[in-house]
Each structure stands twice: as C-alpha cells, then as structure tokens.
Specification:
about 210 residues; alpha/beta; Rossmann fold; 8 helices; 6 strands; globular
C-alpha cells in the first residue's frame, strides 16, 4: 500500500475439512482484484451454524490449511477461532482481528450462497460495520440485494463482487469421494491430498473424522 492507505486484509473463514482449490481460487482472486496485502485463512473451531457437525480434529484441519497455502506468501493461517472457546461467531472473530490489526481494512470473503443466508447470521449489522463483504457468485445462487437491504440496511454499500472462477467444489463431496475411493487429484492441492492419505482422513473406518 502507498501513502496513508490502510492495510487491506482478506478474511476467509470455513471448516476447511478439507481445503480445496475453490478456497484458493477465491482467495487469490480477492487478493489481486482488491489489492489485499494478505488473506487470512481462519479455520472454524465450533461453527454455530453446524451444530453436531462431525468436524475433523482442529489439528488436522489447521495442518491441511498450512499445506494448502504454503506456496503463497500472501496467504496466512490464523488460529483466532481455534485458540479460543466457542461457539465462534464471525462478528466476534472480526472484532478480535480488528484488535490485532488496528486500522486495517477488512474484506470478508464469501460465496453468494452464504450471502443469501447472511441475515440469519449473528449480528449481521455488526459484521458489515467491521468488514466489506467480498462475494463470489456460486452456481445456482443469486442474491436478492433488495431483500438483503431490507433485512440488513446498508449492506448494498458494503458488498463487492469478485470475478472468481465458478468452481463448484464442496468439502462434503470431497470427503465422500475419499470414503468411496474416488480421486481428489486436481480438486485439492497435492500436499492436502498427501496429508489426507497419510493420516487416513475421511476413511469410513477412521474414528478421527467421524464421517
């Protein structure tokens, strides 16, 4: 950044169970399009929108994120949610990041499917006060901005659209493919695939992933 411009940081949250090329493409598009200094990958500790969701242990999810982003110096693993008790809400996570990076301008990266559900999140008004929503369109999801504006006044001015490739990848489907012996090559980074194989993640008989 130049002059007195604030540090621009992207924030990409998720379970990352496992991280895949859709996450990386979204983060890199945002980095370039928005001029971000860094993109923080924030694995969820206890996502309140998925009660009882059978997450892999945090140690594995954090390790897979580190492996996935190792070749991009602008991508950083943040443990802000993993190292505190849950439940973990985006509005609280952003408040902590604002304390850690005082004066930074935050862009919260999300898909249009998440934007559609955004009014149901904890304190959506508090989220858009702390961060601009950088949204990637996802196949089959078209946000109704007029309806969103009625439910969360001011959101229209706090949304930017990313020209990201529409990669229809989902962690749920990737876990299924691993369980069923189908390939995930070219869907996740090689280092992530190797980690999954090495630790037996998502295999039917592995109690660690519980899925």
């Amino acid at each position: 950044m130049t002059g007195g411009d604030p540090l621009r940081l992207g924030v990409l949250g998720g379970t990352f169970d496992p991280p895949h090329y859709g996450h990386l493409a979204l983060a890199e598009t945002a980095r370039v399009q928005l001029g971000l200094a860094r993109v923080l990958f924030v694995p969820a500790g206890d996502p309140p929108h998925k009660p009882g969701y059978p997450l892999s242990p945090a140690v594995h999810r954090a390790a897979m994120v580190k492996a996935a982003i190792a070749d991009n110096p602008a991508f950083v693993l943040s443990r802000v949610d993993l190292d505190r008790p849950g439940p973990h809400y985006t509005v609280d996570m952003l408040a902590m990041l604002n304390e850690m990076f005082g004066g930074a301008e935050f862009y919260f990266l999300m898909g249009s499917d998440s934007l559609d559900e955004f009014p149901t999140w904890r304190d959506p008004a508090g989220i858009i006060r702390q961060a601009i929503l950088a949204v990637m369109e996802r196949p089959g999801w078209a946000a109704d901005m007029e309806d969103l504006e009625r439910q969360v006044p001011g959101i229209r001015e706090r949304v930017v659209w990313l020209d990201a490739p529409r990669l229809d990848l989902s962690a749920t489907d990737l876990r299924r493919r691993v369980r069923e012996g189908l390939p995930v090559r070219y869907l996740v980074p090689p280092a992530v695939e190797a980690y999954i194989r090495e630790h037996g993640l998502y295999a039917r008989e592995n109690p660690d992933c519980r899925r």
